[in-house]
Amino acid sequence: MKKGLLKKLTAVAAVAAITISMIGCGSSKQTGMEKIKSTGKLVVGTSADYPPYEFHATIDGKDEIVGFDMDIAKAVADNLGVELEIKDMDFDGLLVALQANKVDMVFAGMTPTDERKQNADFSDIYYEGSHRFVLRNGEEVNINSFDDLKGKKIGVQKGSIQEGIAKEHFDASDIKSLGKVTDLILDLQNNKVDAILVEEGVANLYCNKNNNIAVAQNLVVTDDNGGVAIAFSKGQSELETEVNKTIKELIESGKMSEYVTKANELAGEQ
After folding, report:
1. Alpha helices in the chain (DSSP H)
2. How many CB atoms are located within 10 Å of the residue 253 CB?
3. Among the four residues 61, 91, 143, 218, which has the most C-beta atoms within 10 Å?
4. What are phi and psi of 134, to 5 degrees?
5. What is the span of the domain harbouring residue 207?
6. Does the pLDDT value for residue 15 go beyond 70?
7. pLDDT, tens digit, 9 for 90 and up, residues 220-255
């Protein structure tokens, strides 16, 4: 009798173990869309030191992460019917966080280079910009080409498209890479670097707020990758389709232009 009961209990336990195992496997195989829908939130990674894309601003006495990337992220979350959660981190850690499933997407003014495409998929391009060198006020007038910057210390954001451009044109010993654009600005102002390279809109905003630095107007830098996009984990086709649909709607309705204008105005007030 006891042996029969033991067999029954063992069988029940085995079935329970198999059921738990199957549940575990099912949840681990959730796609990006399934995870977002089941949790009811879209978790985005950003580096909030890059106005007008994303930056910290005081709104009604509270510190908030704003910018036109964040407006796009909110529109995507709204279209998916979920809440938006923002995680702020250094730029060079964003794709690492994406691969580790700590964030669902990356909104960070990111250019979809071939190297990045090895580790992530990208949305359609939603904004195109060029890049500019920023120098101490008065020094920018002498910069007309990359040759004029040879032998100078160039500051760039670590992991950025500008870092890649700098590596193409300057010796590695002449490049200083930092995690935050704000730190690059401080290094420039404190004579620790001679110039920094950032996206044009970012350059103009920082120069408008600091009268001791200026944009080198005679040298415009472009890249072959053409614009910025949103990054996803590999293979999230359903999620990518929905995001591209939102991007298309925002561009065609004129909302995207409104977001950019609003972000530029807000950044200028900070």
Report:
1. 2-28, 32-39, 68-80, 94-99, 114-117, 161-169, 181-189, 200-209, 237-253, 255-269
2. 10
3. 91
4. -115, 135
5. 131-221
6. no
7. 888 666 689 999 999 999 999 999 999 999 999 989
How far is residue 258's CA from residue 165's CA, in Å, rounded to a whole number?
30
Residue 117 domain flag: yes
Q: Are residues 41 and 109 in the same domain?
A: yes
Give the single-character DSSP code of 212. T
Q: H helices within 100-229, ranges in order?
A: 114-117, 161-169, 181-189, 200-209
Let me know if residue 80 belongs to a domain: yes
Q: Give the domain CATH number at 40.
A: 3.40.190.10
d(CA 160, CA 45): 15
The pLDDT value recorded for residue 7 is 47
Element (H, E) at 195: strand 195-199
Q: Contact 14/56 with Cβ under 8 angstroms? A: no
Would you state the structure tokens that stand for residue 51, as one six-digit string?
A: 């106005």
- Do 234 and 117 have their domain in common? yes
How confident is the model over 182-212, as pLDDT tens digits? 999 999 999 999 999 998 888 988 998 899 9
Give the three-state DSSP class for 238: helix
pLDDT at 25 over 70: no
Which tokens belong to 270? 């900070």
Tell me which residue has tokens 């309705």.
Answer: 253
221 and 131 in contact (C-beta within 8 Å)?
yes
CB neighbourhood size of 49 (10 A): 22
